[in-house]
Amino acid sequence: MSTDGFALPSLNELRESARVVSLPMAARFRGIEVREALLLRGPAGWTEFSPFAEYADAEASTWLASAIEFGWTETPAALRTEIGVNATVPAIAAERVPEVLARFDGCRTAKVKVAEAGQTLADDIARVRIVRELLGPEGRLRIDVNAAWNVDEAEHAIHALAEYDLEYVEQPCASIEELAEVRKRIKHMGIPITADESVRRAEDPLAVARAGAADIIVIKAQPLGGLRRALAVVAEAGLPAVVSSAVDTSIGLSMGAALAAALPTLDYDCGLGTSSLFVEDIVVPAVRPVNGKISVGRVAPDPARLDEFAASAERRDWWMSRLERCHAVLAEASVRP
Fold it and tell me: How far apart are CA 243 and CA 304, in angstroms?
């Protein structure tokens, strides 16, 4: 991943402001109960580098390029000052759904995680059912599979969940070919297929659009390498886009809000309300939904919270080592002919 369009800061410059934080989560999400992030302060403001721990350096360096772009350059022109957001419901027991939804003030759209390892379709149905009951008939309900089904499982599960009036199904299968087949099989149901991993983790994020494998794409600033790269992907894909977070702190969410604000059209609520899944955030007030929306604008961490939620020395060293390795990847890419 190169840093086309802006100069790569030195590693020492990045180290000077680097702070590693560890935020407890209100509910287990994506297999984690604590979210770690490395925060940096550039000339344009605070920014975030927070690839998940399992990501290799080559992939994680794309997230660093995004962090540098946001902290060291001005954001694209904003076309809106507020962004409608969805509630996010982890793969929790159905009885816990009300307490989680209550954390998302005024949200009339909910994304529900399904197909969690160790759970059954019956667990998913129970979770989706209670979300629909709480949202009412006018609320919008989408499910996120995180590529966990094969084609036959996807077709069966979507039929079983269709009665809850799904807005769309996000990444039901792993491959583009599988997505295209599922889309063909359920086309008569009128439920759109949305691609996430097939965009943000793909060598070619436009392949899913060329294959006709999705109706909507999910874009995330950090995994795609920055706001300008993400905007280019949307323009080239020619599909409606939903901007989402990667369980970012409020710093990262402000980056996502800047991306959503710069899109020419924004027809769907975005997945940028996920600070509500934290017990506490690093920004005061946190970037959290109020009446179902978040505001667009840069934010800064509260100094006291940087200390209160500082990661352990061991974890700080781990992140600083990762920063050094990913910076080396970007430096090598910037000099490659």
Answer: 30
Residue given tokens 């990847």 in the structure block:
329
Q: Concatenated DSSP letters for 256-279?
A: HHHHHHHSS---S-BB--GGGGBS
CA distance 132 to 188: 22
Q: What is the set of active-site residues?
A: 113, 220
**Cβ atoms 66, 6 nearer than 8 A:** no
8 Å CB contact between 151 and 176: no
pLDDT per residue over 237-283, tens digit each? 999 999 999 999 999 999 999 999 999 999 999 999 999 999 999 99
Distance from C-alpha of 50 to C-alpha of 326, rounded to nearest angstrom = 12
DSSP-assigned beta bridge partners for residue 40:
47
Non-local (6+) Cβ contacts of 148 within 8 A are 114, 115, 116, 117
pTM: 0.96
How many other C-beta atoms lie within 10 A of the C-beta of residue 83?
26
- C-alpha 158: how far from its chain's center? 23
- Tell me the domains of the chain and their CATH numbers: 11-74+304-335 (3.30.390.10), 82-295 (3.20.20.120)
**Pair 114, 157: CB distance under 8 Å:** yes
